[in-house]
Design goal:
Elements lengths: L2 E7 L11 H15 L5 E7 L3 H12 L9 H12 L6 E4 L8 H11 L1 H8 L13 H8 L2 H13 L10 H23 L6 E7 L3 H11 L3 E3 L7
Parallel strand pairs: 1-4, 1-5, 2-3, 2-4
Helix pairs in contact: 1-3, 4-5, 4-8, 8-9
Length: 230
């Protein structure tokens, strides 16, 4: 049975300060930690249609022709792929249209069900990357099971927003579950042997639901990321 490690991440594109020399060293340290997992394939949160363009950049990077953009796909995925001599990186995401956006659901709840909205979000504490916090420490916080449970509980409870025959939250959640099921489906296609060790780098909000699909499928062993973020 193969193994899959889902690394919950934040989106680095929102943090240009990570180009600083000390932060670049911390990214390298994170990559070194992940290398000890010895992944055979690296999957990333990019739509499948982006495969050709993504791997064109990856090949350019291998030849020293590409300066890494500030994105976890490149900063972590590309560096790790080169370190382990991988031929390619695997995009496995899907971004079809949803009936209602997350922000619209949130706004509707604020205006129409403020008490429920408050109850759904109360107690949620999202870790932040501060100047005095190392990147490795931040990733340990992001991949803490208790934080994953908090996030997952929030998403499940969005289904309560609305009323009988007016399922506002579900108008977005159906898209959310479909997207994560497609990620699971595409991950399953990457398992080609019992020796497979896949690393999936994805926004932390996806971690619990994708891991649940993997566990319930009994398709592979799910590896805890904290065991490799020492």
């Amino acid at each position: 049975m193969g193994k899959i490690l889902v690394l919950g991440t934040f989106h680095m594109s929102e943090h240009e300060e990570l180009y600083a020399e000390n932060r670049q060293r911390e990214i390298e340290q994170l990559v070194n930690e992940l290398a000890s997992y010895k992944p055979t394939k690296i999957a990333v949160e990019m739509v499948v249609e982006g495969h050709e363009n993504l791997n064109r950049k990856y090949n350019d990077y291998k030849q020293g022709k590409y300066h890494l953009e500030m994105n976890e796909i490149f900063q972590i995925g590309f560096r790790l792929g080169v370190k382990l001599n991988h031929e390619q990186i695997y995009p496995i995401d899907w971004m079809g249209k949803s009936e209602m956006g997350y922000g619209e659901v949130e706004q509707w709840a604020k205006e129409n069900q403020p008490e429920l909205f408050k109850k759904i979000y109360e107690g949620l504490s999202i870790p932040e990357l501060t100047e005095d916090k190392s990147l490795l420490s931040y990733y340990r916080e992001l991949n803490n099971p208790s934080f994953h449970n908090q996030l997952h509980k929030l998403y499940v409870n969005l289904a309560r927003i609305g009323d009988f025959n007016n399922y506002i939250g579900i108008k977005w959640l159906t898209w959310w579950y479909e997207r994560n099921l497609i990620m699971f489906s595409n991950l399953s296609r990457l398992i080609e042997s019992d020796e497979e060790r896949i690393l999936f780098i994805v926004g932390v909000s996806h971690s619990t639901i994708v891991n649940n699909f993997l566990k319930e499928s009994d398709l592979c062993d799910v590896v805890e990321p904290l065991s490799y973020l020492t």
